[in-house]
Each structure stands twice: as C-alpha cells, then as structure tokens.
Q: What sequence folds into this?
C-alpha cells in the first residue's frame, strides 16, 4: 500500500506539472505580444522593454516555464496587472466559494441519491422503481447549465423562493446557505442519478447475502433490515463515486457561478479570460487542476485502501 | 455479426425506452438536416414589433430579444450542434483509436508514456480548459472542435488500449501468429473489428457530451461567433433577458435536454442488451 501510495502521488504531481507547464508554454509561445495585451496600446517602448525584462519574456521557453514553477513553489502566483494585486490573493479569496459550492452539491447528491436508491431497491421492479430508474437517467443526462438556468427561472425569478444573485452576506450563515441552495442543486442533480443507481445496485446485491436472510429469518422487520443493514453496506460505493465526481463538478461549477452571479474560481477564470488577464487565468487554472487531481488521488487511495484489488488493476 | 445485429435490433425494439430514444434522435436529426425546408422564417429575420413574444400560432416557440423566431433559430442550431458533434467525435475517435492501438501493441515504455499523456489530458476540467484556450485562440467553430478533441480523445485511447491489450494475448491471436499471419493482417483483420464494438458505443454516448460542451462554450461566449444561432447562444440571450421573457430559456434548453436524453437512453439500452450481466441484474 505504501509503494502504491508513493506511485500514485508521484503520478499526480507529474500530471499537475506537465499539464500546467504545457498550458503556460502554449500561453507564452503563442503569437501576439503579451506586453501590448497587459500594458495596453498606450505603453511606451521603454515601458515595454522594462516589462519584458521584468517578466523574463526574452528567456528561452524552458527557462520561463522553470522560473514560473520556481515562483509558484515559493508561493508567488504572479501579479494581477489589471487590479495591481497578487494573483494568489485573487485566487484564494475565490476558492472558498467554489469549495462550498462543490460540497453543497455533494450534500444534495448524497442525501437525495441515497434516498432515491434505497427507495427503489426496497420496491424492486415495481412501477415506482421503474419511474425512479428513468428519473435517475434523466438527471444524469440533463446538462448542468440548463438545469441551472431552469432552476434560476423557476425558483428564483418566478417563485422567488431563493435569491438569484451573489453568495450572500459575509458572516450571515443563513443568507450564505440560502444563496447556496439552487446553484449546488444544479451541480448535484446529475450525481443524484449516479448515486441512486449505485446505491440501488449494491443494496440489491447486499440483500442477496446470507446475513440479510439470517436477519429476516430471525424475524426482524423487513423495513429495518432494508434500511439499517443493506443500506449501510451500500453507502460506501456511493462515497467512492462522489470522490471521483468532485473533479467533474468543477466544470459544472463554472456555469452555476456565472448563472447565479456567484464569486468563485469559475467566475474568476471567466472574467479574466474576457479581460485577457493571463496571469490570473494561469493562477486559477493551477488551483483548479490541483484541486481536480488531488480529489481524484484521494478517491483512488481510498478505493485502494478499502479494496486491495484496485492496487493491481491500475 | 449480422445475426447479432438482427437480434440486437429486435431486442431494442421491445425496450420502450430504446424506441423512445431512437424516435427522439431520428426526429432531431431529420429536423436539423432539413432545417431550411422546415423553418417557418429566415433565422436572421427580425420582427421588431414582436420582441420577446410568447409561443403562439405565428411563432411556435416565441421570439428573442430582436424579434427573431426561436423555432427557426433552434433548427439552425441543430445543424451546428450536429456538425460540431460529429466532426469532433470522428476526429477524437480516430486519434484515440490510433494512439490506443499503438499503446496496446507498442513496447512497455511507449505504453506507459501514452498512458501518462492520456491521464494528463484528462486532468484538465473541460469547460475550464475551454475558457483558457479560448483566451488564446480566435472565436469560432474550429476552436470549439479543437477544445473538444483535446479533452475527449484520451477517453477513446484508454478504452482502445485496454481492448487491444486483452485481445493481444487471446488464444486466437496467438494461433494466427503461430500460423505466420503478418502484423498487418492481425491488426486490421482481427484486432480492429473487435475493438470497434465498444468504440462505437463510447462514440454514441460521447456525442451528447460534445454537443453540451459546444452549447456550454457558446453560452459562455467563447464558442460560435456572435450572431450564430447555436443552442448555447440562444440560452445566453435568454439568460441576459430573463426578466423580460422566460420563453427563450424554456425553448432554448429543450433541444439540448432532448438530445442528451435520447442518446443517454439509447446508450443505456445498448449496454443493457450487450452486457448480459447487467440484464440479469434488472
């Protein structure tokens, strides 16, 4: 297990290093003068020369990439020239909002998914089971930004049950949660479907096991056997699926943040791209990819720790 | 093979969800192909007195902020979605097919290197990468296709590699080799046909994902050029004018939901039929 862990961590670090280096390389190697983008058309030739030197734009590509990593490792993500602040500050103030959103989505998908899955496993092959099966697939299929738009339209604009803009008042927990409900539901809905199916499948498998039959034979009520014993076994695979899914939720978070005008990594990248604010794009990408790879790594390690077969097959 | 296909279609026809899926997909594809014949209006024609109209006999799905007929625009958007979807799936599928077979057949170091390459590409969150690349590339359908190909061919590569590896060591290939079959014969006659099955299922299930990415990029303003009636662009117009009319969002989201539902149900049905283990589990 230790060897496997080291291997996986090394691979994850390699992936982050290569993917970010490639992006950084493409960004600076592409035609177009970054000085005119960053300093604006009114910059004097002297200003441009100074800027080129400061940024090391005349160094060879490989040196520029290595220098970039040197700065990143010392905690410096660069400078946001548009607002004159460190990129790290911008990214770190946006990150908590996105993390809250993703965990809100996990909350929705875990609670609704487990309920739906347990419910249809309990009434296997009934009409209700079939209907929930179709609903699960529909949830999986619905594009998250369409779900975000529809829920904005229905619950925020038409019914006015929830606020439509922002992340809530700082320090006011209730307002924060109110602002989190719709966007996190929009992201989580697809995973409600996944979780429901996995919980249903593993509960059905568990209900075929002999200890469940024994519990029934001892005269324990059916309901209690299903919801106490079988469900407990079925929750673990659901947790694993969600661990892997966190990465995918990041992409959906971009839409949810924009549709509900929330601050966050997605909004930050989106506005920086429209402004051509490359240092911020780079810093936010680094954090997003790091978050994505870390979540996949943790899910992988949990899987391996719980089920030794995974260590071999990878 | 034809025997299997025959029974497969027979079995699909008895699955109500599969039938529904096929009906949805056929309808949408037909509407996209014959968009110019079906559309009641020119998709660029503006009816300024009829802005933000609700659905009516005159405008079936309402009109947008410039009084353009939403139904006609959605039909045109179907063509864009289909073009981008098919092009991107074919290109990324071919790249994945070739790289996956090289990984499966090649020496160990090459296999490892390609696997690392696939994993690196899959580390990019799709939409976030799309945004970053959009900052660097000109806005247009080519950029959309490039982004989709970059983020999706690794998936094909992995599936093809696994399939090739397991086939490479199967007995019938060993027997062929022992009888002196050439490398080309083994690859094109034996491996390729056996890889194509899972490959096509993956492609079918990937198509709605690609269409959603195109719509998503256009919604974010980094997809199709301004004025192009992509489904995502229609949704963006609806989002910008959400206080004036709910219809642009309601109508604009409809084809996207139908397309993803159709292909997902079809993929589910196909997998149920092709994987006996799952069928007994129902």
A:
């Amino acid at each position: 297990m230790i060897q496997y862990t080291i291997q996986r961590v090394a691979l994850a670090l390699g992936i982050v290093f290569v993917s970010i280096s490639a992006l950084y390389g493409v960004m600076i190697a592409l035609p177009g003068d970054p000085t005119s983008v960053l300093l604006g058309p009114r910059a004097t030739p002297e200003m441009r020369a100074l800027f080129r030197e400061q940024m090391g734009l005349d160094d060879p590509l490989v040196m520029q990439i290595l220098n970039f990593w040197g700065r990143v490792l010392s905690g410096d993500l660069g400078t946001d020239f548009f607002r004159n602040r460190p990129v790290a500050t911008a990214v770190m103030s946006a990150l908590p909002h996105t993390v809250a959103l993703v965990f809100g989505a996990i909350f929705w998908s875990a609670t609704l998914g487990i309920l739906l899955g347990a419910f249809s496993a309990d009434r296997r092959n009934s009409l209700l089971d079939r209907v929930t099966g179709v609903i699960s697939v529909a949830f999986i299929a619905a594009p998250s930004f369409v779900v975000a738009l529809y829920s904005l339209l229905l619950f925020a604009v038409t019914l006015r049950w929830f606020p439509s803009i922002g992340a809530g008042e700082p320090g006011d927990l209730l307002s924060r949660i109110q602002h989190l409900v719709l966007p996190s539901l929009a992201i989580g809905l697809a995973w409600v479907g996944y979780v429901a199916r996995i919980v249903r499948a593993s509960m059905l498998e568990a209900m075929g096991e002999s200890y469940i039959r024994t519990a029934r034979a001892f005269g324990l009520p059916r309901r209690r056997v299903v919801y106490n014993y079988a469900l407990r076994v079925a929750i673990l695979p659901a947790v694993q699926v969600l661990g892997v899914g966190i990465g995918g939720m990041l992409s959906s978070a971009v839409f949810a943040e924009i549709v509900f005008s929330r601050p966050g990594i997605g909004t930050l990248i989106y506005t920086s791209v429209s402004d051509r604010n490359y240092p911020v794009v780079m810093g936010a990408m680094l954090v997003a990819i790091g978050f994505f790879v870390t979540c996949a790594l943790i899910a992988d390690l949990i899987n391996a720790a719980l089920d030794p077969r995974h260590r071999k097959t990878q | 093979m034809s025997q299997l296909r025959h029974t497969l279609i027979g079995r699909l026809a008895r699955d109500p969800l599969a039938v529904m899926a096929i009906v949805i997909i056929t309808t949408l594809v037909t509407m996209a192909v014959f968009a110019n014949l079906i559309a009641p209006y020119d998709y660029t024609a503006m009816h300024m007195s009829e802005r933000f109209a609700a659905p009516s006999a005159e405008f079936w799905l309402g009109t947008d902020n410039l009084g353009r007929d939403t139904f006609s625009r959605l039909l045109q958007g179907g063509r864009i979605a289909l073009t981008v979807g098919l092009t991107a799936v074919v290109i990324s599928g071919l790249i994945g097919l070739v790289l996956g077979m090289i990984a499966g057949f090649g020496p160990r170091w090459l296999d490892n290197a390609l696997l690392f390459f696939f994993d690196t590409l899959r580390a990019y969150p799709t939409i976030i990468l799309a945004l970053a690349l959009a900052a660097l590339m000109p806005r247009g359908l080519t950029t959309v296709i490039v982004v989709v190909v970059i983020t999706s061919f690794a998936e094909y590569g992995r599936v093809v590699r696994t399939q090739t590896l397991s086939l490479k060591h199967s007995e019938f290939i060993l027997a062929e080799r022992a009888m002196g079959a050439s490398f080309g014969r083994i690859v094109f006659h034996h491996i390729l046909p056996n890889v194509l099955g899972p490959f096509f299922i993956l492609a079918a299930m990937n198509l709605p994902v690609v269409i959603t990415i195109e719509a998503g990029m256009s919604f974010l303003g980094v997809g199709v050029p301004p004025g192009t009636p992509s489904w995502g662009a229609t949704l963006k117009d609806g989002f910008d004018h959400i206080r004036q009319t709910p219809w642009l969002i309601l109508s604009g989201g409809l084809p996207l939901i139908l397309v993803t539902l159709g292909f997902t149900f079809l993929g589910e049905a196909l997998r149920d039929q092709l994987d006996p283990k799952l069928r007994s589990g129902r």
Q: What stands out?
A: Chain B touches chain A at residues 17, 116, 119-121, 123-129, 131-132, 134-136, 208, 212, 215-216, 219-222, 235, 238-239, 242-243, 246, 249-250, 253, 256-257, 260-261, 263-265, 268, 281-282 (CB under 8 Å). The domain at 2-280 of chain B is CATH 1.10.3720.10 (MetI-like fold). The CA atoms of residues 103 and 110 of chain B lie 6 Å apart.
